[in-house]
Structure formats: C-alpha cells, structure tokens
Amino acid sequence: MEATAIAHRNPNRTLNDLPDEILLHILTFFQTLDAFQTSLISRKWRPLWSHLLFLRFSYEHSPLNDPPFDNRDFFAEFVYRALILRPHHPIDLFSLSFIYHHRFSLHVDSWVRSVVTNLHARELHLDFFINRVYHQIDESFNHKYDFPFAVLRNNTVAVLKLTRVELTLPASMALGFVDFARTERERVVKRLTRAILVIWSRLMLF
Questions:
Q1: Residue pair 62/98 in contact by the 8 Å Cβ criterion
Q2: Residue 154 reports pLDDT greater than 60
Q3: How far apart are CA 129 and CA 146, in angstroms?
C-alpha cells in the first residue's frame, strides 16, 4: 500500500530509486554472472554485486554455455575476474558447478584457495557432475578433481559439499586416521576377547 502510494506520488521512479538493501535482495536470486552484469545498468548498481554474501557459478545455467561449443575457458576467465574484483570481505557461500577436466585443475585450486583464504567462505560447494550429456563434450566424464584438503587448515569453512571429487588427505591427517583405526580395532578385539571369556566361563559352570 505504501509503495503504491509512493509510486502514485512520483510515477517517474525507477529501480535506481530503490534502497540498496532491496536491490541486494533482488540480486540474491541471481547467479553471480547475472548479478555481475547488473553493474552495467548504472553507477548505483556498479558495486552492488560485490556486496553479496555468496558467489554462485553454474556452467550449466551460464549464458556462456552453448553446446556443442566448449566455452569453459571463457567461464573460467569470468570466475577469475569475479574473484579478483570482489573485495576481500567474508562470504557465506561459494558454489561452483562445472564440467571438470584435468586441464582446469590449477584453475580450480586457485579458486578454492582464494575463497577460503581471502574471502573466508563458511560454505564450500563443488559439483563437478552436471549430467552425462554435458560430460560427453569430451573425455572429461572420467576426470575427477583432487580436492586440496590441506587448504582447510585454520579456516572458517563449516560446511563442505563435494560431488565427483577425490579426497587426498594430508600425510599427518592420514596417519591420524590410521592410528585411530588401529586403536579402534584393538578395542574391538579386547571387547570380543572379554565377551568370549565370559561366555566360556559360564559354559564351564554347567
């Protein structure tokens, strides 16, 4: 009602007259590429995308995706550009959906380290499987990203979601798991031994 009354008072009002908070709320429904493009609307819109608390990059929903053409290099260039231009303020989410190929391993490593160390992302979502049709562009269906687990040391990541990703644990962490497994195995053996002795002792009473 109030918004309608304001519009009637000034029929020449445009989106530029809305408060930044409302414009930012509108941008939360956009992929990062679309939000970035709104910076071309006017000077008021130019910095808005960089204040969003998320970065969402989806190759499947990107206008750069134009099967059967492979435009992943252009998509990767945009991700780099967005990470460079965005101020180093903490974000809630970094989400990447991409057709992974080994030749992009250094790119993805760089993006992950940037959002973890510079943007202090709380959630990290990496999805490298869209569907078989997309992966049939080349032999990338058999390619899996090796996630740099060590980058998570001393960081703010609270939620980690990975699809079609291999995990290579750091040596120290891997040894920790081995020691844990060995300790658990020894405990199980001791419990079974005690149980067997108890059963045997009871059988001997009959």
A1: no
A2: yes
A3: 14
Map tokens 């995990």 to a residue: 167
Question: 3-state class of 124 per DSSP?
Answer: strand
Q: What's the predicted TM-score (pTM) here?
A: 0.72
Convert the pLDDT of each residue in 27-76 to its tens digit.
Answer: 999 999 999 999 998 899 999 999 999 999 998 887 766 665 678 889 99
Distance CA 30, CA 202 (A): 70
d(CA 128, CA 147): 11
C-alpha–C-alpha distance, residues 148 and 144, integer Å: 13
Asked if residues 128 and 164 have their Cβ atoms less than 8 Å apart, the reply is: yes
Return the closest-CA partner of residue 75 out of 141, 134, 155, 24.
134
Q: Point out which residues pair with 148 in neighbouring strands.
A: 168
180: confidence class by pLDDT, cuts 50, 70, 90: very low
Q: Which whole number is the average pLDDT over 106-111?
A: 95
Provide mean pLDDT across the span 80-107.
92
- Report the C-alpha gap between 20 and 7 in whole angstroms: 18
What is the C-alpha to C-alpha distance for residues 114 and 86, in angstroms, rounded to an integer? Answer: 11
- The first and second tokens of residue 69, run together, are 């053409």
